């Protein structure tokens, strides 16, 4: 059973304003976003492109709403750019998150990624790393992990559609190549299901590495369309491939049971990028919060 005292519930602002597709939700303000998060019953948030990056300013907005920062996405380019470029950017990102009280740093390798390319089929053109690149990725993540630990924080790696670490096999390889003391795993139900993997199997295999959780669902008919029509990741998002937990094809009951059995402690972050003109962010946030209460007892 999940321990309510060990888990915090957050939601990502990407449902209100999409960082990769700024035209989705461009009219939604930062203040509306965080107010609706709080009204829906969440206690935290990840960071979107409309959030102030001055910690003192951001805290002034979040505190009256009872919100805190869980983490924020960081794009690494460990296999395509000089290491120091990623290190410098990561250090600034780390210091901002540390000032906001976050304990984990979400990292995803963007070298060769096609997730932001509007016309590249997400399944057909998915990149793969050469062996030398795998070694570069592992070494670079170890360096980022060391920098995170300077602030008593953890790097949590985000497997993601359209990148070199997407499939269960690729996650296995990354976990094998990296030191558990320096690199942990972000477990994302939606990206695994989208990729055709079994989220529960991945969670069971790497339970000891999971330190951050994204709760995301998929619409199976849309994912089938994405594969059939050779759509890009961004086209998939616009088509409605993702939705909130309980509104799609993912079976969350065994996932919640496993997370409870492993005594998971940390954040559950609802993340479901959709077109807010078609899927009202507040209504879907309320739907997600109700589902988590009913199914996970939180």
Automatic annotation (TrEMBL):
Domain of life where this protein originates: Bacteria
Group of enzyme by EC: lyase
Cofactor annotation: glutathione; Co(2+); Mn(2+)
UniProt keyword Manganese, yes or no: yes
Gene3D superfamilies named in the record: Divalent-metal-dependent TIM barrel enzymes (3.20.20.150)
InterPro entries: IolE, IolE/MocC, IolE/XylAMocC-like, Xyl_isomerase-like_sf, Xyl_isomerase-like_TIM-brl
UniProt similarity note: Belongs to the IolE/MocC family.
Name of the molecule in the record: Inosose dehydratase
């Amino acid at each position: 059973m999940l321990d309510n005292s060990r888990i915090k519930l957050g939601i990502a602002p990407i449902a209100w304003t999409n960082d990769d597709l700024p035209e989705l939700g461009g009219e939604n303000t930062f203040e509306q976003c965080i107010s609706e998060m709080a009204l829906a019953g969440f206690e935290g948030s990840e960071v979107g492109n409309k959030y102030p990056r001055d910690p003192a300013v951001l805290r002034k907005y979040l505190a009256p709403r009872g919100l805190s920062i869980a983490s924020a996405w960081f794009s690494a380019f460990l296999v395509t750019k000089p290491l120091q470029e990623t290190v410098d950017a990561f250090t600034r990102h780390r210091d901002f998150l540390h000032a906001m009280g976050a304990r984990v740093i979400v990292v995803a390798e963007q070298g060769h990624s096609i997730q932001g390319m509007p016309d590249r089929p997400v399944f057909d053109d998915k990149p793969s790393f050469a062996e030398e690149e795998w070694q570069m990725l592992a070494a670079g993540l170890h360096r980022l992990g060391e920098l995170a630990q300077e602030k008593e924080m953890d790097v949590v790696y985000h497997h993601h559609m359209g990148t070199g670490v997407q499939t269960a096999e690729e996650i296995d390889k990354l976990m094998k190549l990296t030191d558990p003391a320096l690199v942990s795993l972000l477990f994302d139900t939606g990206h695994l299901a989208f990729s055709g993997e079994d989220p529960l199997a991945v969670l069971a295999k790497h339970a000891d590495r999971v330190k951050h959780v994204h709760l995301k669902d998929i619409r199976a008919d849309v994912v089938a369309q994405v594969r059939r029509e050779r759509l890009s990741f961004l086209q998939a998002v616009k088509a409605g491939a993702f939705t909130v937990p309980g509104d799609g094809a993912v079976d969350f009951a065994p996932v919640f049971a496993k997370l409870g059995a492993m005594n998971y402690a940390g954040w559950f972050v609802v993340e479901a990028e959709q077109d807010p003109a078609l899927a009202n962010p507040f209504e879907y946030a309320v739907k997600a919060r109700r589902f988590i209460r009913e199914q996970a007892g939180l």
